[in-house]
Design the sequence.
């Protein structure tokens, strides 16, 4: 059974008062996330990440398709008791203290009243807010609110945790702590689905990522697998300070490093560069593929035309 | 009451108290004290009438203002501030949220009315030095005022489930004003003919009948309130509020929380 199963989910919003214009926020989205996986949902602002999360949380209704979490329908209270959700830029009842808020959410989630106080203490400790449990949330900084948000999402020990931009508003130390929390959730067998536009976070944490742009899923898979598919570059190093004319004419920028010269060129012209070195009888030291980053893949996907448009052009 | 509805109601009550809603009691206490002292000095034999009239009208107006101004934000504020997201992503059904908010604000108004009622009886004791048996009618009038609050809370919540706070306040306030003249509207409908009669009768029965829930003048004059009116008003307020709340739930169940 998949932890999250999304089948052709679509969402179209109608905007305008007199002349209705429709905006497709989500084109048919199909995606599956396995149990115990950390899945990163990547995309620029307005790509459809939050819309997807809101549909999964039952806050927004899809115009097409369906989704199941832990094999249960989205509106099923049994499913909701097993998931945790941190919205983007969370805002909480600021008349409550952090402790009161967590007690309230624990009651709504059906946490055993006998264990609730202990559970609240434990999550406050996990997010490093033990000393601020009795402070009203209106006095909290943005970073502290983000931590409370994470605390409420994991309070009831859910099986699947959805985090919308969990690192937003956190300082470098805070981001590191949240990464630690997410890794800890995975170690305890939980499934984590988080959206972000910070690629380094996704690269460091995720088993798999999905890239969404203009409401369309552009790619999904393990980071290493996705980046391997990007048209790569190679670094070629040879001995001496000579730059063959053939290489110079290609416009490649060569750099001297001690007794060696090095150049980074696209894979397509690798053979031509090696041939130029051979002609000049220069000693080749190494040819090393330069690993493309998730950012390269991400940028490549954002630049590609919409698949749905490409299909319509072909047909 | 289902436990989630109870917890949402408790939180709504706590929010109202911490947002200093009950501070209106200070204004009410000052008003009643001033009225009692003034009436005690200038009125001749009509102290009771003036204090009961003024006191109950003030209880009604203070409560209506609170019901409208808190009620209109009960849903829209939670959507704007996105506090609703972390509630509805839990095993909470949308109708439970609406019901919890309704009971929470109604509870706040009941507590508020209780303290204001003490103020009214205090002022009455000050000006007339004793209570008479017909004063029991004041309790009935207060009960009817609470029933008005229940209806207004349901209406404010209904408008809040689909409209902006400003429009919700305007709609709820006008319904309160029109509803206060519901009996006149019904009398007018009875005098008309044809389509006008159908439309006027429909409108007269659609707006809440607040005039039937207003027995302040009667009570101030020491006249008894018929028992069947108490039963009928109770049934009317409950059925009307339930219908309005059901409409609020129907709308809210289908609403996308953008």
Sequence:
């Amino acid at each position: 059974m998949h932890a999250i199963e999304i089948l052709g989910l679509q969402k179209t919003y109608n905007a305008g008062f007199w002349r209705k214009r429709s905006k497709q926020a989500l084109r048919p989205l199909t995606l599956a996330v396995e149990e115990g996986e950390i899945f990163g949902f990547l995309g620029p602002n307005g790509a459809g990440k939050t819309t997807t999360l809101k549909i999964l949380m039952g806050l927004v209704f899809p115009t097409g398709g369906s989704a199941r979490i832990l094999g249960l329908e989205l509106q099923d209270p049994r499913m909701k008791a097993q998931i945790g959700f941190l919205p983007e830029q969370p805002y909480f009842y600021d008349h409550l203290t952090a402790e009161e808020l967590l007690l309230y959410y624990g009651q709504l989630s059906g946490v055993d009243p006998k264990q609730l106080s202990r559970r609240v203490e434990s999550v406050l400790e996990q997010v490093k807010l033990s000393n601020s449990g009795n402070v009203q949330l209106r006095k909290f900084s943005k970073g502290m609110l983000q931590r409370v948000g994470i605390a409420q999402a994991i309070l009831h020990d859910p099986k699947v945790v959805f985090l919308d931009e969990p690192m937003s508003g956190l300082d470098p130390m805070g981001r590191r702590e949240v990464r630690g929390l997410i890794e800890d959730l995975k170690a305890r067998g939980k499934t984590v689905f988080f959206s972000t536009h910070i690629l380094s976070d996704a690269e460091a944490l995720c088993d798999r990522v999905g890239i969404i742009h203009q409401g369309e899923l552009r790619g999904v898979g393990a980071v290493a697998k996705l980046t391997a598919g990007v048209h790569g570059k190679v670094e070629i190093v040879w001995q001496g300070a000579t730059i063959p004319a053939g290489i110079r004419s290609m416009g490649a920028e060569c750099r001297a490093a001690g007794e060696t010269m090095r150049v980074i060129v696209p894979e397509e012209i690798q053979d031509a560069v090696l041939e130029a070195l051979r002609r000049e009888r220069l000693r080749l030291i190494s040819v090393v593929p330069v690993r493309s980053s998730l950012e390269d893949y991400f940028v490549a996907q954002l630049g590609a035309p919409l698949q749905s448009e490409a299909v319509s052009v072909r047909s | 009451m289902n436990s989630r509805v109870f917890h949402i109601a408790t939180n709504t009550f706590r929010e109202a108290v911490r947002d200093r809603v009950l501070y209106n009691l200070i204004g009410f206490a000052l008003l009643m004290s001033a009225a009692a002292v003034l009436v005690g000095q200038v009125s001749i034999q009509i102290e009771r009438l003036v204090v009961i009239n003024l006191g109950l009208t003030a209880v009604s107006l203070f409560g209506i203002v609170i019901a409208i101004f808190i009620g209109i934000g009960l849903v829209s504020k939670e959507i704007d501030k996105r506090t609703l997201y972390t509630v509805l992503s839990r095993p909470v059904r949308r109708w439970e949220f609406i019901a919890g908010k309704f009971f929470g604000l109604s509870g706040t108004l009941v507590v508020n009315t209780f303290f204001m009622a003490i103020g009214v009886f205090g002022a009455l004791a000050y000006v007339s030095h004793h209570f008479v048996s017909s004063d029991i009618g004041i309790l009935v009038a207060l009960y009817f005022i609470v029933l008005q609050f229940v209806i207004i809370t349901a209406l404010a919540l209904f408008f809040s489930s689909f409209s902006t706070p400003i429009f919700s306040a305007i709609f709820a306030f006008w319904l309160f004003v029109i509803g206060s003249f519901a009996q006149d509207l019904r009398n007018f409908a009875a005098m008309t003919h044809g389509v006008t009669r159908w439309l006027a009768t429909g409108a007269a029965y659609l707006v809440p009948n607040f005039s039937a829930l207003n027995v302040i003048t009667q009570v101030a004059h020491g006249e008894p309130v018929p028992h069947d009116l108490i039963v009928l008003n109770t049934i009317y307020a409950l059925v009307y509020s339930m219908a309005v709340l059901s409409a609020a739930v129907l709308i809210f169940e289908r609403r996308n929380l953008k």
User: Anything to note?
Assistant: Chain A is about 35% helix and 30% strand. Chain A touches chain B through 30 residues (CB under 8 Å). Confidence is low (pLDDT under 50) at residues 310-315 of chain A.
